[in-house]
């Protein structure tokens, strides 16, 4: 397995390539993120229009089901898949008390 590092809105993301599938763990900043925002934040879509086209074309699955709502709210534990890539959403990191 080869490791690479991507930086997005939430910070560094470990990316693993295994069997031709890229696995991304995305740490949420809050309680949820919309599907189109996730696609842009991870670099899977280059723009909001690109995210919309991917979703309306049926190229995006949420927890194994095709999702056609680009604004659907995703929470920790959700798995989003597009051809060649799977993204698992993680809960926000807890900030230590000062």
The CATH superfamily label reads RNA-binding S4 domain
Mean pLDDT, to the nearest integer, reads 84
Q: Strand pairing plus helix content: what structural class?
A: alpha+beta
**First-residue to last-residue Cα separation:** 38 Å
CATH architecture: Roll
Number of strand segments: 9
How much of the polypeptide forms β-strand, as a percent range?
A: 35-45%
Q: CATH topology, what is it called?
A: Structural Genomics Hypothetical 15.5 Kd Protein In mrcA-pckA Intergenic Region, Chain A
Rg, rounded, reads 13 Å
Please provide the ordered H/E string of secondary-structure elements: EEEEHHEEEEE
Instruction: Count every helix, treating DSSP H or I runs of 4 or more residues as helices.
Output: 2
Low-confidence stretches: 1-9
**What spatial form do the alpha-carbon principal axes imply?**
globular
CATH class: Alpha Beta
Describe this structure in words.
This protein is of the alpha+beta class. The chain has one domain (2-90): Structural Genomics Hypothetical 15.5 Kd Protein In mrcA-pckA Intergenic Region, Chain A, CATH 3.10.290.10. 16% of the residues lie in helices and 41% in strands.
């Amino acid at each position: 397995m080869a490791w690479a590092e991507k930086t997005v809105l939430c910070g560094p993301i470990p990316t693993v390539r295994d069997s031709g599938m890229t696995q991304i763990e995305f740490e949420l900043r809050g309680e949820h993120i919309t599907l189109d925002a996730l696609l842009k934040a991870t670099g899977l879509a280059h723009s909001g229009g690109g995210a919309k086209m991917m979703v309306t074309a049926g190229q995006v699955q949420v927890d194994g089901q095709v999702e056609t709502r680009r604004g659907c709210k995703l929470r920790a534990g959700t798995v989003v898949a597009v051809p060649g890539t799977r993204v698992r959403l993680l809960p926000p990191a807890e900030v230590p008390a000062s």
